[in-house]
Design goal:
With 536 residues, the protein is an alpha/beta fold. It has three domains: 123 residues, Nucleotidyltransferase, domain 5 (2-Layer Sandwich); 174 residues, Nucleotidyltransferase, domain 5 (2-Layer Sandwich); 195 residues, Hypothetical protein af1432. The protein has 19 helices and 14 strands. Strands 8-7-6-9-11-10 form a six-stranded mixed sheet, sandwiched between helices. Helix 5 crosses helix 10 and helix 13 runs antiparallel to helix 14. The protein starts with 6 loop residues before the first strand and ends in a 9-residue tail after the last strand.
Length: 536
């Protein structure tokens, strides 16, 4: 039996080209984790229907079969939890969320959809778990099947995160029809990659300080395959592990030149190249070549840890198991929310009061009216901070604008479902209650998260009403349950002597119907006398 401090955890990355799994043993006392099992299956989710963009039935079935195998391995190793994330292919397919629902239904496995920028952040965490940056700038590049992530960091918070829609599978499907590739197609592919990379690389370079020369770190199957081919040719043997292996831009250019002259069949005959990788290696290698050229960097170092290990690190951070050199990442969710609030000129003093009321209502009703835990509490807090950000666009229908800004604001540290939940909570802080006919509500494919919005949006409405004048008129709220009468009394303590808080009481009367309908209780606001020490 494992000691109390040992935990076994599984992370699965459902990518555009492959499904990767790692099972790790976590030792919180170090803190560190050891990989005890790996699994990989090339399922090509990214080979979508060209007419509709839908994930194909064949690809989805390959993925489900691979995920079932991952579950079996995880169970055999007594893993306590599987954390699965999906990226580009599922993110972009019109039936991507339907696929996730199908996996949940058939396998009982919930897969979290994450944004491209969140994917980049977790890749950074995975690399940080294996490389000591020593406070010096490093650029991390991860070339996937559907997207390429670029990250600039020095071991603390990432300075720049980007995800660009160029990947080895995507580009091969869209731009390569000749075999070997024709000169015209090669030049078109190269020009397209250059055009797509120019802006994210310029933005990344803008975060470099004068005199800094970053090191380039590469992750992903494409880059590892290139390193394997390079090592066989130049060393005669492939290092195991590949971690730390380096090759230069000139050698990469020679590999690209060779790949473009070979047919797919001939590339597959190269030692260290499998058939499936041979199909997409040219596009992947060309992405790396153009990125290195635009960055002006002559060499790249391999890191074998990436997104799946970053998922493990993120779990350790959220469970308080890491406090040393990754400590800067531990509050990323809160800081990301505040950064978005600042971007959209939210009145933080007011929003923090509303958030405090929402947290107080949540805590006092927990276990009585609802059973939500820490995750839901944090999502409600984020929604309270950002509920008014739609004013940045217009006062009219600002709750709907808030939904849009939150949904597209690149909140870090959250899954797509969590971002959708925050956006919906903010959307329903006023006006209509959640309805199935609302597109934003339908976007929440997770039934538990819909239920969360149903139950927590009334609390946010009350919290907003409690600061109707935005002057902090109410100092404290106390909930008193009267189950025999079917009532909840809300005792309100004013902050100022002589303030009758008439506008707050009026607003509560107007907003309380959502609460009463949801919980089947009559809400009775009661204004208490101001206490000694209240402002006069």
């Amino acid at each position: 039996m494992l000691a109390d401090y040992d935990r076994i955890l599984t992370a699965i990355d459902v990518g555009t080209n492959s499904i990767h799994m790692v099972v790790v043993r976590i030792q919180p006392t170090l803190p560190a984790f050891t990989i005890i099992a790996r699994e990989k299956a090339t399922v090509r989710l990214g080979e979508r229907c060209q007419q509709t963009g839908f994930l194909t039935e064949e690809a989805m079935q390959r993925a489900i079969d691979a995920l079932k195998r991952c579950q079996e391995i995880s169970k055999s190793l007594n893993s306590e939890q599987i954390i699965a994330v999906a990226t580009s292919a599922v993110r972009e397919a019109p039936n991507g969320r339907d696929f996730l629902q199908r996996v949940a239904s058939e396998l009982g496995l919930w897969i979290n959809l994450i944004s491209g920028v969140e994917e980049a952040r977790r890749i950074y965490l995975g690399v940080l778990s294996d490389i000591e940056f020593d406070g010096k700038p490093h650029i991390v590049i991860d070339i996937g099947g559907g997207s390429t992530e670029l990250i600039l960091g020095d071991g603390h918070d990432p300075r720049s995160l980007s995800s660009t829609k160029i990947g080895a599978v995507r580009l091969t499907n869209e731009y390569v029809s000749t075999d070997p590739i024709s000169s015209k197609e090669f030049q078109t592919l190269q020009a397209y990659i250059q055009g797509m990379l120019e802006r994210p690389i310029e933005e990344l370079q803008a975060h470099l300080r004068p005199g800094e020369v970053p090191k380039l770190v590469g992750t992903s199957g494409t880059i590892e395959t290139l390193a394997t081919l390079h090592a066989r040719e130049h060393l005669g043997v492939v290092p195991d592990p590949l971690h730390g292996y380096r090759f230069n831009l000139q050698d990469l250019r020679e590999m690209v030149h060779r790949f473009r002259r070979l047919s797919c069949h001939d590339r597959a005959q190269l030692p260290g190249m499998n058939d499936r990788r041979a199909e997409i290696i040219l596009a992947g290698a060309l992405i790396l070549q153009e990125a290195m050229t635009l960055l002006g960097l002559e060499s790249i170092t391999i890191c074998e840890r990436s997104l799946r290990e970053g998922v493990i690190v993120d779990w350790m951070l959220t469970h308080g198991l890491i406090e040393d050199r990754l400590r800067y990442q531990s509050s990323i969710r809160q800081r990301s929310v505040l950064k978005i609030a600042q971007k959209y000129r939210v009145n933080l003093i007011y929003s923090e009061r509303v958030a405090a009321f929402a947290m107080s209502l949540f805590d006092q009703t927990q276990g009585v009216l609802h059973q939500w835990g820490e995750e839901a509490r944090e999502l409600l807090w984020a929604a309270a901070i950002l509920h008014n950000c739609g004013h940045f666009i217009s006062h009219s229908a600002h709750h709907k604008h808030s939904y849009y800004l939150i949904r597209n604001g690149e909140l870090l540290g959250f899954t797509e479902t969590e971002v959708e939940t925050i956006a919906n909570l903010a959307r329903y802080h006023r006006k209509n209650n959640p309805k199935k006919k609302h597109e934003n509500y339908r976007n929440l494919t997770s039934k538990p998260h819909r239920r969360m919005v149903d139950q927590l949006s009334p609390l946010l409405r009350l919290a907003v009403a409690l600061d109707r004048r935005q002057i902090g008129a109410i100092q404290q709220i106390t909930c008193e349950f009267r189950p025999d009468r079917g009532e909840l009394c809300l005792h309100l303590q004013p902050a100022r002597l002589g303030d009758d808080c008439a506008l707050e009481l009026w607003s509560l009367e107007n907003k309380k119907s959502s609460f009463e309908e949801q919980f089947g209780l009559k809400l009775i606001p009661l204004l208490e006398p101001a206490t000694v020490g209240a402002r006069g």
